[in-house]
Amino acid sequence: MVINTNISAQTGARLLSESSSMLAKSLARLSSGSKIISPEDDAAGLAVATRFDALINRTKAASNNIGNAISFNQTQDGFLKKASKALNRMSELSILSQDITKTDADRSLYNAEFVTLGAYIDDIAGRDFNGVQMFDGSTLDVTTDGEGSTFAMSSVDMTAGAYSNATSATVDTIGNAQTALTNVKAAIDQLATDRANIGANISRLSSTGEQLGVLNDNLTAAVSRIQDVDVAEESTSFAKYNILVQAGTAMLAQANATPQSVLKLLQ
Asked: How far is CA 135 from the centre of its chain?
């Protein structure tokens, strides 16, 4: 029997320290909801989860970009609806101006409305969306995912071609009205094509937005499996380590008291 070295107490203290450490970690996991409290808990899992978190944020940003691009297209289509109404009236005026029972004085009245509608369409051609021109024909690259991939979104050019030919025409004579009708019909055909392209853009962007939503859900689920604590499992571990700490504390007290038996030999 020795009194200088108490191996039982030393071992008990070590085991109690280990149990206390595990109890503290279990308590931290339950209170934080995360099973990775420090990098050594799951070094590889932490690295993967960090990359996934960054990708999730980039995916959300791309989803916002797509939403704004859809709004851009919807705004374009809203203006084109009004332009379509104006062109329909202009085509009607070009037919009315070809009435042989009308005089040039009458046609000048039709022409006044025709020219005003043309100016309205020219005004639409200069509209912008948050400072970005909507009808200058520029192709816009929309970011479609968190890796920077883009979709080349076709735009509408109302500054030249069929639209400018229609808006610069007049119906003050029968001859001019006939030319104007041809130009306005071409503009109507072009507008129909442009609205179809806008519809295709919205459909494409909407599908991509839905895809990003699914991707975001899957990435979030993957991160959850890596980081989130299983409360039922961890609460069981917490109860286990709590009992071990209490038992270890009691046994350490007994181990510390064991050398006292040496005193009986000295009595």
From this structure: 25
Torsion from C-alpha of 161, 166, 170, 175, nearest 10 degrees: 80
What is the DSSP track for 38-99? Answer: SGGG-HHHHHHHHHHHHHHHHHHHHHHHHHHHHHHHHHHHHHHHHHHHHHHHHHHHHHHTT-
The alpha helices in 142-230, defined as continuous H runs, are 162-167, 174-227
Nearest CA-CA partner of 25 in 49, 3, 41: 41
Vertex 67: Cα angle to 66 and 69 (nearest 5): 60
d(CA 101, CA 105): 11
Strand-pair partners of 140 = 153
* pLDDT tens by residue, 32-79: 888 888 888 888 888 999 999 999 999 999 999 999 999 999 999 999
Query: Residue 58 corresponds to which amino acid?
Result: R
Q: What does the alpha-carbon distance between residue 211 and residue 35 come to, in Å, rounded to a whole number?
A: 30
The owner of tokens 């005026």 is 93
